[in-house]
């Protein structure tokens, strides 16, 4: 499986690259960004995966969040994949911003036609991590995951289900209970079918209730002026589950911040430091 370099640019001492590769999981070409800190020129470094939200490609966080400065200082490799397969052209794939293209929800779809290529769970957990481990100087056992909104849901569910692989989890304004909000209900009905039993496997709040754990404290930042807070995000549901089931969580409600990359950029430094500490850099 080979990586094609689309661009490489020096940034804050390290190198920001954009790559494409042919994916077996999603049956199409996938684009991703990989930031290598200067330290990676001479030694292996820990790696963190950032999963983006609805409508995003790898590019939003790569150009808007300013993570490169902090990642270089912390000596962390940062990998940012796309949010769905592209160009499969299923009916309805491009009709709405919260389903289909740009809205893969980091799951393996079971419903036709999506089940053929909407396999973002397998893509991130297995194929992408193998690709990165084989092509970049990473310390494989020092690996973390974070994300925003739909990508926060991805980071929480993937991290909780694979704690031996992803040892550190954080999120910005995550969808914490997709079975209980319109974005999740629409996506899960379409990709997983109407039977809500199948949804539990991809719902962070349910996963905590069913015994899944991260070895480390989980960090969540959430803006109080986020338009999606009460209808879609509902961080209190995850907080209650963590309290009841003994999962350490730091939920920080950030006064006046919205759902945008201005918010993410404001707290990116804290999230990079959090992962650096958890991964014992
Ligand atoms: N387009 C949607 C919102 C989509 C949205 O807010 N997407 C977030 C992730 S859930 C995002 O990161 N957008 C891209 C950006 O801000 O660069 C709407 O207008 O209601």
CATH superfamily: Alpha/Beta hydrolase fold, catalytic domain
The CATH architecture is 3-Layer(aba) Sandwich
What does the average pLDDT come to? 97
- The coarse overall form would be globular
Tell me the CATH topology: Rossmann fold
Bound molecules: glutathione
Alpha-carbon distance between the two ends: 30 Å
How would you characterize this protein structure?
GO terms for molecular function: carboxylic ester hydrolase activity; S-formylglutathione hydrolase activity. It catalyses: S-formylglutathione + H2O = formate + glutathione + H(+). One of its GO terms (cellular component) is cytosol. With 281 residues, this protein is an alpha/beta fold. The chain has one domain (4-278): Rossmann fold (3-Layer(aba) Sandwich), CATH 3.40.50. 33% of the residues lie in helices and 24% in strands. It has helices at residues 59-64, 67-74, 120-135, 150-161, 182-192, 204-209, 229-233, 235-245, 261-278; strands spanning 4-11, 14-23, 28-36, 45-51, 77-81, 138-148, 168-172, 218-223, 249-254. Helix 2 (67-74) runs parallel beside helix 9. The longest helix has 18 residues, at 261-278. The chain is globular. The mean pLDDT is 97. Glutathione binds next to helix 1.
């Amino acid at each position: 499986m080979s990586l094609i370099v689309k661009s490489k640019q020096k940034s804050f001492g390290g190198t920001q690259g954009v790559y494409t590769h042919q994916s077996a999981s999603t049956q199409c070409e996938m684009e991703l960004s990989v930031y290598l800190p200067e330290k990676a020129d001479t030694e292996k470094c820990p790696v963190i995966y950032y999963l983006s939200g609805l409508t995003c490609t790898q590019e939003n966080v790569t150009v808007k969040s300013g993570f490169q400065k902090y990642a270089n200082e912390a000596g962390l490799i940062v990998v940012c994949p796309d949010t769905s397969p592209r160009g499969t052209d299923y009916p309805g794939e491009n009709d709405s911003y919260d389903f289909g293209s740009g809205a893969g929800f980091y799951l393996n779809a079971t419903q036709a036609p999506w089940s053929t290529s909407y396999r973002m769970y397998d893509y991130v957990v297995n194929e992408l991590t193998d690709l990165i481990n084989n092509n970049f100087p990473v310390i494989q056992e020092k690996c973390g995951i974070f994300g925003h909104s739909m990508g926060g849901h991805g980071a929480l569910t993937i991290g909780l289900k694979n704690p031996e692989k992803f040892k550190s989890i954080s999120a910005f304004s995550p969808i914490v209970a997709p079975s209980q909000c319109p974005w999740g209900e629409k996506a899960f009905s379409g990709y997983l079918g109407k039977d809500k039993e199948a949804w539990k496997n991809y719902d962070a709040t349910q996963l905590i209730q069913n015994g899944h754990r991260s070895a480390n404290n989980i960090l969540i930042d959430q803006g109080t002026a986020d338009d999606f807070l009460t209808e879609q995000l509902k961080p209190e549901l995850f907080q209650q589950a963590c309290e009841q089931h003994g999962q350490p969580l730091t939920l920080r409600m950030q006064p006046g911040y919205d759902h945008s990359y201005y918010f993410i950029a404001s707290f990116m430094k804290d999230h990079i430091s959090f992962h650096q500490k958890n991964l014992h850099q």
